[in-house]
Amino acid sequence: MSRPLDRELGMHRKIRRRDFLNGAAATAALLAAGATRAQADSGADLKDYPPALTGMRGSGYPGAYSVGHALRDGTFWNSAPQAVRTAEEYDLIVVGGGISGLAAAYFFQKRHGFGKKVLILDNHDDFGGHAKRNEFGAGGNLRLSNAGSFNIYAGEDSTAFQCEIYSDLGIDVARLAQQTVDPRFYSRLGMGQGVFFDRETFGADRLLKDPAPWTDFTFLYAPNPPPEAEERWKVFMAQAPLPDPVKRDLYRLYHDSTDYLPSLTPDQKVARLARMSYADYLVKIAGCDPLVCTYLRDRTYGSGRGLSSTTALSAHRRFGLPGFAGLNLPAAPGPAGGVEYHFPEGNATVARLLVRKLIPRALPGRTLEDSMLTRARYDELDRRGNATRIRLNSTVVHAQNQVSADRGGSVEVSYMRGGKLFSTRGRHCVLACWNYLIPHLCPEMQPEQKAALAYNVHTPNLWVNVWLRQWRPFHRAGVNFINAPGSYFASLILEQPVSVGGYRHSQSPDDPIVMTMLRGYETPGLHIKEQFRLGRAEMYATTFETFEHNLREQLGRTLGPHGFDPALDIQGITVNRWGHGYAYWYSPLYDDFLTTGGEPPHLRARQPFGNIAIANTASGADDSTELAIDMAARALAELALI
Ligand SMILES: Cc1cc2nc3c(=O)[nH]c(=O)nc-3n(C[C@H](O)[C@H](O)[C@H](O)COP(=O)(O)OP(=O)(O)OC[C@H]3O[C@@H](n4cnc5c(N)ncnc54)[C@H](O)[C@@H]3O)c2cc1C
After folding, report:
1. Does ligand 1 lie within 6 Å of residue 302's CB atom?
2. Residue 514 in contact with residue 467, Cβ under 8 Å?
3. Has residue 380 been placed in a domain?
4. 640 Ramachandran zone, left/alpha/beta (phi>0; psi -120 to 50)
5. Which of 133, 269, 414, 416 has the fewest beta carbons closer than 10 A?
6. How far is the CA of 618 from the centre of ligand 1 (A)?
7. Residues 230-234: what's their mean pLDDT?
8. Percent residues over pLDDT 70 in the chain
9. Are residues 68 and 188 in the same domain?
C-alpha cells in the first residue's frame, strides 16, 4: 500500500513511464485511466519509436549496457554464443552512432560520391549517442527536449570540417541564434533565475528570485543582469535563510572590486588561479564562510564537476562566477564573438540531419526547419540496398585486423544483437565509441595504448525531462530557472524560448511544457575520476521510483506555495542517465603532466591500429559536438580515406 505522502505526490497516477506502457495496449490503458486522447495517441507506437519512450532512457537502460559491462568485467566470452558470419562486406564499419560516428560516415560517403558501403553499429535503440531527442505528446501537442547534448557553437575558431558539416546541413548558427531565439520571452513575463533553499540544508523551505547575473546558458536569456537586480538583492538580504555573515560574503563577492591577490602580477594571478579550486579560492583567498560554497554548489554542475573540482580560473572565465572583479585579470586567450545555439531538441538536430544525408528515406523532408516535426523512420535505417546502413541494438565486442597481403587487410567486427553474436567484415573500421571500452574491443593492442585509452573516465550526467500540464506556478513565482543548492536536483529549467520551423516553444503559462531537472554527482576531496565512478555507481543504483519520488517532492516543496500540484501537473517523466557522459578533459588540479610536462595520454590512446582508427570526443580530450566532428575527420585521414 502506498504511503499517504506518495499519494499526495501522485506516485500512483498513470503517467507516461516506459515501465508500464508499451505499444497499442498502452493506448487503451491510458484512455481507461483517464488520459487525454493526445497522451494516448502518442503512446500508440512507442515500441518502434524510441524518442517517445519515457522511463529510464539516455544510455542507462540494461538493454544498452549489459553486453558492454560483461565485456568490461571479463565475463562476456565465458558464455558468448557461437558467432554467425554475415554475408555482408563493407568499405567502412563505424562503431558508435553518435555525432562522431555519423560525421565519419558522412565525410567518407561525401568524398566518395555516397556510393560506398558503410555500416554504423550502435548499442542503443536510437542513434545520436549523447545527441538524442525526447518527445512528449503528439501532433499539435508535441513537446521536444534534448535528452543530452544541448548546444552547438560556431566562431572564428571553427575548423573547416565543422563549417563544412554545418553548412551542408543548413545550420547557420548565427542566423538561427538571431532569428529563432526569443531571449526576452521569460523576462517579459517577469520571470528569471530563482534559488530554492531547502529546510534540511538552510533551515527553511524558501524560493527567492536570484539577484545574481545569469551564468548558465546566457545566450538564451536577456537582459543580463536582470534590470531590477538591486531590488532583488534587498529582498535576498532580508529573506534568504542564511546567516548574516554569509549574506554579507555573497553581497561582497558580487559587488566589491577587492584584489584578493594584491602581491601578484596579472600573469602570476592567472597561473595561481589555474592551480587552485574555486572552493579554495572562495574560502582561503577571498575569506568567505564555507556556506558560500554550499550556496553556489550548483553553478558549475553544467560541466559535471563541483566547485572543489573546478579551477578558480575556469570559475571566472567559463562560468562567470563572482569574486574576480578586482583582480584585473587579462582576457582569456582565443577569438571572441563566437555564437552558441540551442535547438528545441538540442543537438539531436545535428544527428538527425546527418542521418538524412546518409539515408534520405529515414528522415523525409528537405530543410532543417521541416525536420523538427518529422518523425525518423527507424525501419529505413538498416535496409538492404542502402549504401549506408545504421544497425541499432548492436553492441560491438571485438574488432580485429585481418592481414591479407593482396587486399591491404580488413577488419573483422563482431557484435551482439538480440542475444546472437554476428561477425562481419569491413575494409576499414572507425571506432567512434568510448575510449574506456576500446581495450576490450581490441585485446590485441599494445598495453601502453590500452593504458592511455583507460585514462579517459567519462562524467556521469543526469538529465531528467518532465512533461508538465502547465507552468502557471513558475509564472506566479517569477522564475523559469531555479538553482536548488541543497536539494536532490540541482537545477530546474523550463523549456528554452526557441521556435524552429513548425515547432513553437510553449507560449503561455497555461500550456504544456517540458521542464528539465539536473542532478550533480560530486564527492569533494576525492580525485575527480573517483568522483565520477562513485557518481555513476549511485546513478545506476537509483531506481526510477526514487527519481520520480524525489522530483515530485522537490517540485511540490519548491512550487507548491505557488499552486503546483505534483499529483496533477506531471504528465510524463524521462530519466536520461548518461553513465558515460562527457569525455574527460584535463585540469591542472588532477592531471600532473600539465605541470610536469609529458605527452597528453589521448595522443597515444588514439593511434591508428592497422586498419582501425579512433574517433569520438575522448580521442580529442574534450567534449563538444564540434570536436566530435573534427575527431571523425582526423580518424578518416589516418586511414587515408579523406
Ligand atoms: C548530458 C550531456 C550533455 C551534453 N551537452 C553538450 C552540449 O551542450 N554541447 C556539446 O557540444 N556537447 C555536449 N555534450 C558532449 C557530447 O558528448 C559531445 O558533444 C558529442 O555528442 C559526443 O559524440 P561522440 O560521437 O564522440 O560520442 P557519443 O555521443 O557518446 O557516441 C558514441 C556512441 O557509441 C556507442 N558505443 C559505445 N560502445 C559501443 C560498442 N561497443 N558497440 C556499439 N556502440 C557503442 C555509444 O553508446 C554511443 O551511442 C553533452 C554530453 C552529455 C552526456
Report:
1. no
2. yes
3. yes
4. left
5. 414
6. 9
7. 95
8. 94
9. yes
**352-364 average pLDDT score:** 98
Which of 563, 579, 595 is the C-terminal boundary of a domain? 579
One domain, residues 212 and 313? no
- The amino acid at 107: F
Looking at residue 33, its pLDDT comes to 33
Distance 100 CA to ligand 1 centre (A): 8
The alpha carbon torsion through 76, 79, 85, 89 (nearest 10 deg) reads 0
pLDDT band at 32 (very low <50, low <70, confident <90, very high): very low
Whether the CB of 632 sits within 6 Å of ligand 1: no
Ligand 1 geometric centre to CA of 72 (Å): 19
**Would you state the pLDDT for residue 10?**
86
Residue 129 lies in a domain: no
CB 184 within 8 A of CB 223: yes
Rounded to whole angstroms, what are the CA distances from 552 to 5, 108, 365, 398, 565? 10, 47, 39, 43, 9
Q: 211 and 69, same structural domain? A: yes
| Band of pLDDT at residue 43, cut at 50, 70 and 90 | very low
Q: Does the C-beta of 126 come closer than 6 Å to ligand 1?
A: no
Ligand 1 contacts CB of residue 249 (under 6 A): no
Q: How far apart are CA 12 and CA 457, in angstroms?
A: 38
Q: Report the separation in Å between the CA atom of 131 and the middle of ligand 1, taken as the mean of its atom positions.
A: 7
What's the pLDDT at 25?
Answer: 36
Distances (CA, A) of 202 to 197, 240, 297, 481, 524: 6, 9, 13, 20, 20
**Average pLDDT of the segment spanning 76-83:** 95
For residue 147, which atom of ligand 1 is closest to its CA? 1
- Ligand 1 pocket, mutate which of 623, 630, 631, 634 (most atoms under 8 A from CB): 623
Using the predicted structure, report yes or no on whether residue 578 has a pLDDT greater than 90.
yes
Q: Is the CB of 579 under 6 A from ligand 1?
A: no
Residue 57 CA to residue 125 CA, distance in Å, equals: 10
The answer on pLDDT for 44 being more than 50 is: no
* Position 405 confidence tier, pLDDT thresholds 50, 70, 90: low
For ligand 1, the distance from its centroid to the CA atom of residue 128, given in whole angstroms, is: 7
pLDDT value at position 226? Answer: 86
* Stretch 384-405: mean pLDDT: 94
Best residue among 71, 149, 461 to mutate for probing ligand 1's pocket (most ligand atoms within 8 Å of CB) is 149
Q: Is the CB of 341 under 6 A from ligand 1?
A: no
CA of 51 to the centre of ligand 1 (A): 16
| Total domains present in the chain | 3
Tell me the CA–centroid distance for residue 160 and ligand 1, in Å. Answer: 22
Regarding the beta carbon of 625 and ligand 1, being less than 6 Å apart is answered yes
Q: Is the CB of 433 under 6 A from ligand 1?
A: yes
Mean of pLDDT over the chain: 93
> 478-509 pLDDT, tens per residue?
999 999 999 999 999 999 999 999 999 999 99
Statement: residue 373 has pLDDT above 50:
yes
Q: Which is higher by pLDDT, 230 or 7?
A: 230
Query: Is any atom of ligand 1 closer than 6 Å to the C-beta of 169?
Result: no
Q: Looking at residue 17, what is its pLDDT?
A: 61
Same domain, 259 and 298: yes
CB-based burial label for 434 (10 Å; 0-12, 13-18, 19+): buried
Is residue 281 lining ligand 1, measured as CB closer than 6 Å? no
95, 6: one domain: no
Q: Count of residues for the chain?
A: 642
Q: CA dihedral defined by 37, 39, 45, 48, rounded to 10 degrees?
A: 170
Same domain, 476 and 571: yes
Q: Is the CB of 630 under 6 A from ligand 1?
A: no
Q: Domain range holding 605?
A: 80-124+375-457+585-638
User: Could you check whether the bond before residue 588 is cis, i.e. omega within 30 degrees of 0?
Assistant: no
